[in-house]
Amino acid sequence: MTDTRTLTVVDACSSCEPLTRETLSAESAVELARGLKALADPARLRLISIVAASENQEACVCDLTEPLGLSQPTVSHHLKVLSDAGFLSRSQRGTWAYYSLVPGALDSVSKFLLT
Fold first, then answer.
1. Do residues 28 and 70 touch, judged by C-beta distance below 8 A?
2. What's the whole-model pTM score?
3. Residue range 49-76: mean pLDDT, rounded
């Protein structure tokens, strides 16, 4: 059976050396670019910072719309992009979704960018 799971930026860069020390594989470059693209949006950076600053580094989607001044569907879209890229994980509690930082997800990007 073929593994069809999608790689995240965490998977692609878990063993990445800084850009100046090792050639990046084509697959890792695609996944890293996807992760960086997910982060390259002001609303998504704010979402990451809000979740990181929240108690237990976790926040309910119900608490994320007001600080951004965006509609709930727009915030949900941004959260999905961040989740798909491997930066946030999602858990359902009743009718609300809670998002938390994936341990090491941001570390893997920063490790890659260090020279």
1. no
2. 0.76
3. 93
